[in-house]
Amino acid sequence: MPRITLTIEDNSPVLQYSTQWEAGNSQDNAADRYSLSSFTLSNTNGSWMSFVYSGYDVHVYGAKRANHGNYRVDIDNGTTSFEGNGSIPGDGSFQVSLFSPSTPMANGLHNLTLTNQENKFLDVDFLTWQSAVGEDNEQLLMNTFDDMHSAFSYFPSSSWTTNPPNQSRYFGTTGHMTSDPNAYMEFAFQGDAITLYGPVDPSGSAYTVELDGGPAQRFTTNKASPQAQMLMYQAFNLGPGAHKLTMRYASSVVSATQGQQFLAVDYATVYTTPSIQKAADAATKVSGGAIAGLVVGNLILLLIIILGMICLYRYKKYGYVDWRSFLRPFKHKRMSEDFKQELQLPRPFNISVPPTTNVLVDNRWTSGKRRLLRMSSWRWPTSTPQQSSSWRSSRYQGSYDMPASSIPVRFAIRAPEVKYRGHIKYRIGLPRYHRYKKYPTWQS
Prior knowledge:
The protein is mainly beta. Helix content is 12%, strand content 35%. It has a 6-stranded mixed sheet with strand order 25-26-27-28-29-30, with no helix packed on it. A hairpin with a 4-residue loop joins strand 7 and strand 8. The longest helix is centred in the middle third of the chain and has 45 residues. It is elongated.
């Protein structure tokens, strides 16, 4: 895997110190011998510094001077331990290693703790550590995003300004700053690792960071001396795909002299490899296919709804669904006059309902004058005209009288092959023909 070596200064927000630590005094005649002339020190027994990182080996650098004492380093709660002494005579040594692993460390999430074991001085100058991205023998891809890039989003936009203090020290001489307690920033990216940078300052604020909706981690940019381009957040082994980092302002007024605390953003660096980028592209394609499937599914559902409405329309109008002419539900082919004569249908067509026949009056389809008598049983009396066994020549001829108490109604007669429904319907070969929107006049 391609390895990345990163360096963080002693006043980086990602380093957590107990309350007994303080910034090194610039009046120290050896201050300029530290990296960036900055260091953090403590002379209290039991004071500690903690650093959580993902990667391999980690190295701690500081000074060894005559007034320094014993200290201890623990990795992963004592899995690896080291005891050292920071005292040497003379003018001392600076930017020297206080801790380096004796054996290579496995790649993973680690927690380093540096503890002062005497009431003598112990200082921290900077740390370095290695992390890995992607697979072996791959090219490391590093993409730096300035705060003005469209991948950054600031909310609310009116609460952010692009004129932070010491702007000339920022990457690209641009930065975003806010003092609004409700302000937050989002950064969308694709990659396996990210580092976010910004300034620290005596008026710097606390802030929280959430990655991909995970738990919030709290940090602070409130440091004794101003420094730009400090590491504010780092995360590795994120895996391929889209990620979102959210940083929120989390402070208020410090004092009347310092005024409102501010939070500023400088730039971010995203690390990836060709294999991770390829996997991310494949995931994007799958998501596109899923979206296409959803669209097609919705279209099919819409088509089913439309067909269902057509069925409902036909059922309400005719009392049945004619599947053979389903695609022509609103227009029927009219019968020719010759064909009507061939059917030998008398008009008016008077029908008599025998007492032995079950009759159902159904008002669901229509109401008022437009009622329907549906014969649900076909026990015809002997006076019923004979019908042939062949459906092709099926005929109903003759005149049938309705009872005197009857009123003009629509009717339905169901036989094995011939159906009379609403308007008279004949089935003589294919296709079916529909006719008679004006119904026969029945007389008692």
